[in-house]
């Protein structure tokens, strides 16, 4: 080790490594999550990536979101993948010729000149846009960034609260596990059990060309994912007459919907508009989230299976994400902290990061995709939530682990929550992005909208 290496602090090493990842994964107008495994633009990845990029290159962060939202459909949905036409079809499955968005999605206003998927991912985008604006408000105003983004972001939120309110109780439903962002969670096993899978001989999984089979979903799960996606495509991606065989109200998706509504209120105010409508929606959505998905016995928010009309009694990290909300009842927030510390997630005790699924659960697997490993973006949200609710010691400990494990794992896609062993692909963009944010923003900068603002939430 030379003298220069000896003088480099761990934080400097982590920062430089994360910057290298984001530089290497930039492809001209957006950032790929991974050069090998995920060679296109992904929706909620780009939101987290922009949150990190804003500290390095604010204009590039603006461009990241602009590129994604340029592929928005006329009905307001932001597709979960925007395909790069220069990437060979065989590099990723399902590829553009499977989704056929420009033809199958015509009735819903899919772009004609850009191929996308027909699904969505969690709505982190208004939050990202607001934070990106704050990073460089001068260039943002000069470029009209918020002015152009605001109507698109509003349309995106209204798509979720309108066409996707499949349960009729004010919450958005996901219609495919991939829409949760937590694709392979055991939370989806009960509703997926109703789905007849397609045969594994009918598709080629490109993910297995780049990752270990033990880390990835099984062929049976993939067969069900493909069946659901085919059904949605063959119904023209229409929500009103699709007869969705899978519809679940996910607490993580809906918590981020609320948080982004807070961000829209901030954006509206910055543009000289009345934020009242957004704040009313915040209150309505938060009330619906607490009344519909809070489970007192578990001390956690749980998914609701709209088709079966029952709560899915599986415990995932998605149920902790509502901690980011300033409007949670204090009793609920305290219970969530106890659950995070308790045997299901072990934070501050048995785990270094929050696992994606219950340590004591029957389906826990610390290696397999979303069935137990810890993910950096989810833990970034939990860290922000802990800090928001005054759990500074726990938040500081989690922040330190996130930074350390990101660098040690070579910015892995996910890690074993106990040992910190790297899993999935390496040089993963949102891992690098949240590392940059934690290092640059510092522990005192919660960097979330609506600091100090609380709303009246009914808990009866």
Automatic annotation (TrEMBL):
Residues 38-431 form the Mannosylglycerate hydrolase MGH1-like glycoside hydrolase domain. One of its GO terms (molecular function) is Glc3Man9GlcNAc2 oligosaccharide glucosidase activity. The keyword Hydrolase applies. GO terms for biological process: oligosaccharide metabolic process; protein N-linked glycosylation. Keywords: Glycosidase, Hydrolase. It comes from the Bacteria. Pfam families: MGH1-like_GH (PF22422). Belongs to the glycosyl hydrolase 63 family. PANTHER family: MANNOSYL-OLIGOSACCHARIDE GLUCOSIDASE. This is Mannosylglycerate hydrolase MGH1-like glycoside hydrolase domain-containing protein.
């Amino acid at each position: 080790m030379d003298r220069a290496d000896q003088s480099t602090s761990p934080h400097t090493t982590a920062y430089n490594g994360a910057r290298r990842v984001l530089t290497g994964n930039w492809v001209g107008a957006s950032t790929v999550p991974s050069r090998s495994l995920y060679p296109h633009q992904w929706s909620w990845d780009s939101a987290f990536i922009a949150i990190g990029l804003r500290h390095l290159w604010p204009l590039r962060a603006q461009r990241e979101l602009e590129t994604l939202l340029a592929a928005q459909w006329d009905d307001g949905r932001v597709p979960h993948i925007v395909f790069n036409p220069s990437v060979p079809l065989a590099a990723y499955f399902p590829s553009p010729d499977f989704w056929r968005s420009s033809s199958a999605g015509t009735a819903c206003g899919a772009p004609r000149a850009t191929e996308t998927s027909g699904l969505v991912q969690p709505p982190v985008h208004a939050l990202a846009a607001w934070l990106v604006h704050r990073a460089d408000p001068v260039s943002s105003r000069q470029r009209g960034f918020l002015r152009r983004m605001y109507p698109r972001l509003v349309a995106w939120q209204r798509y979720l609260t309108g066409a996707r309110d499949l349960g009729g109780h004010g919450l958005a439903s996901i219609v495919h596990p991939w829409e949760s962002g937590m694709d392979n969670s055991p939370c989806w096993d009960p509703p997926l059990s109703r789905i007849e899978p397609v045969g594994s001989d009918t598709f080629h999984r490109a993910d297995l060309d780049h990752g270990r089979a033990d880390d990835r979903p099984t062929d049976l799960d993939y067969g069900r994912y493909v069946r659901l996606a085919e059904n949605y495509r063959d119904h023209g991606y229409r929500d009103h007459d699709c007869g969705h065989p899978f519809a679940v109200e996910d607490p993580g998706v809906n918590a981020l919907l609320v948080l982004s509504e807070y961000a829209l209120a901030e954006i509206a105010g910055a543009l000289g508009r009345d934020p009242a409508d957004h704040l009313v929606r915040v209150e309505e959505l938060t009330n619906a989230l607490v009344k519909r998905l809070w489970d007192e016995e578990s001390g956690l928010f749980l998914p609701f299976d709209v088709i079966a009309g029952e709560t899915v009694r599986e415990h995932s990290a998605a149920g902790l994400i509502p901690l980011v909300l300033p409007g949670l009842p204090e009793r609920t927030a305290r219970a969530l902290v106890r659950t995070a510390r308790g045997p299901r997630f072990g934070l501050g005790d048995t785990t270094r990061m929050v696992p994606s699924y219950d340590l004591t659960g029957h389906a826990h697997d610390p290696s397999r995709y979303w069935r137990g490993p810890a993910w950096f973006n989810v833990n970034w949200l939990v860290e922000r939530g802990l800090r928001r609710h005054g759990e500074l010691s726990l938040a500081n400990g989690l922040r330190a682990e996130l930074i350390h494990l990101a660098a040690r794992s070579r910015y892995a896609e996910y890690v074993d929550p106990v040992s910190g062993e790297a899993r999935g692909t390496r040089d993963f963009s949102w891992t690098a992005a949240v590392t940059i944010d934690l290092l640059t923003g510092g522990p005192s900068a919660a960097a979330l909208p609506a600091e100090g603002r609380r709303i009246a939430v009914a808990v009866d």
